[in-house]
From TrEMBL:
Stated name of the protein: Amidinotransferase
InterPro entries assigned: Amdntrnsf_FN0238
Annotated organism of origin: Paludibacterium purpuratum
Amino acid sequence: MQTTKHILMVRPTHFTSNPDTAGSNTFQHSDMTPEQAQEAAVKEFDEYVALLREAGVDVMVIQDRQVPHTPDSIFPNNWITTHDDGTVILYPMEALNRRLERRRDILECIGERFDISSLMDFSSYESKEYFLEGTGSMVLDRDNQIAYVCRSSRSHEMVEGAFAKVMGYSTVWFTAVDKHNMPIYHTNVMMHVGDKMAVVCLESILSPYERKAVVQSLEKSGKEIVDITLDQVEHFAGNCIELKGHKDQPILALSRQAWGSLSKSQQEQILKYVTPVQAPVETIERLGGGGARCMVAEIHLPLRTPSQAIVLPEEHTRQDDSPYLA
């Protein structure tokens, strides 16, 4: 299935702008003290979670740890993906402090509700400085098994090739730049693929041949293209994700500023397929350089049957040292 109603989100403990990622992330800024950043990020995070749950999304919230300091832990989609066949994949990360985000206790929490039949760890590629940052690097068309990937220091062909071979995907590669002609660090900043619709900034793709290949692939897969501008990319209009809400109705999670940057005709295109859920995450976008989509790691794993389910005691979910928050 292309979309899911089950997602993982990590609630920040020490959110700040990450100096270790600033070199390749031109969307990232630093204009607040760590204390101000954390206070604002927690407020925005909790409001976003509440909006998703109100829309019918099943949100598993994991509390970030006090130690070690992982300023980008709020973006878990970069280190983990899950798949309908029970596979979980862990990814190699470019920044040293981001590698600390991979947590076995999070996998254990996921495994309490979902079946994990296979765990694949690609993080050993870090020793060769080959990186692939999950669904930041790859925008996945799960139904058609196509990965869309823009070239950057965070997306290496060797690792993507390993993913494609293991999961049976084909890959559409292209080069994309922002309005300052700088390489876009993650594909999901300028592109989204949903069930029947795709959001993509075609003008960011420099090569007319690569642009044509992206369009042809999307259209062949039955996606209506919502073409956004480079200015709208700066407002995170491409950083969105389709999820299932109440009665499996499709919603589109994106930021408040992303939705506001779209024209009326673009909004009407989107409204044909999904209901928008607008996240008030301006601080997280500005300091982290990632938006509403980056904060979501989809859970596509099979649910455990009732006889298999491990039910956490109510008091356990309330303990401060437990990573799982009900």
